[in-house]
Amino acid sequence: MKQLSRQQGAVKGLAEEFGALPVGSGRWAATIGESWWGWSGPFGGAIVALAVHVAADTVPEATVRAVDLRFVGKPAGGELLLTPSVREVGRHTRIVDVSVTQGATEIAVASVTAGRVGDAGPADIVDVADAVPGPEGMAQFSIPPEIVPMGGHLDLRPVDGPLPLTGAHESWMRAWISTRTSMALDAAYLGLLADCLPPAVFPTLTAPLAIPTVAFSMHITDPLDDPEPAPVLVHTRNISTSGGWSVDDTTLRDRSGRLLASARQSRRVVGWSAR
């Protein structure tokens, strides 16, 4: 019961950060304040996190295993309305579809898969202690809030790989990330962190470029059995940028090197800037 109490208190951090509250008929309302905006509007990772949070609350008997989200409109300032609907798949699996709207406009649709978690098999472990320094030994990196306001909410500590906008020849980044507001290390939180680093092609650029996410997917790879807030090692790499589209793969690991989740994003490249 003690662990459950800690988890409930930490999860409250994410809901309170975005003012997420049930408003009747299973629906939730939330607002992504301007301090949580990205390059040109509300942070997409916050929308992912809210959709997962609402889905998890809708089927508390199940555990979130995957999320697929598509942006079908451009989010703006103001209240979001999240409306879940549940489909049963067999005895223990639930698919929660979450529609995210602003006014009369649908801006995102998410499909969250949840189900019973059985006995754990061998975990995918990388010895992070040997591979990279822990977050305590790394300098903080501040994303200029006048460019990306949501950067002010992050404790971001690059580990290795090139930094954004340095004209590098490699398109990947790796950093320890946590939020300054304490939040539980659950599926919603991982959805938030998976989108916190800039597009992985950014190290090869020397000036910012609009590369908005169109499709986001994430799969939980190991049970999230410790709800305590903790830094997560986020490693994102660009696997393709061509034809006006860019695809990034991201892994999220804990201090022990355990793989918590893997994510993929398809982004639209709006314009292009030479390196």
UniProtKB/TrEMBL annotation:
Superkingdom of source: Bacteria
SUPFAM superfamilies (alphabetical): Thioesterase/thiol ester dehydrase-isomerase (SSF54637)
InterPro entries: ACOT8-like_C, Acyl-CoA_hotdog, HotDog_dom_sf, Sec_Metab_Biosynth-Assoc, TesB_ACOT8-like_N
Coiled-coil ranges per UniProt: none
Residue span(s) of domain Acyl-CoA thioesterase-like N-terminal HotDog: 35-114
Domain Acyl-CoA thioesterase-like C-terminal: 140-266
Pfam families registered for this protein in UniProt: 4HBT_3, 4HBT_3C
Name recorded for this polypeptide: Thioesterase family protein
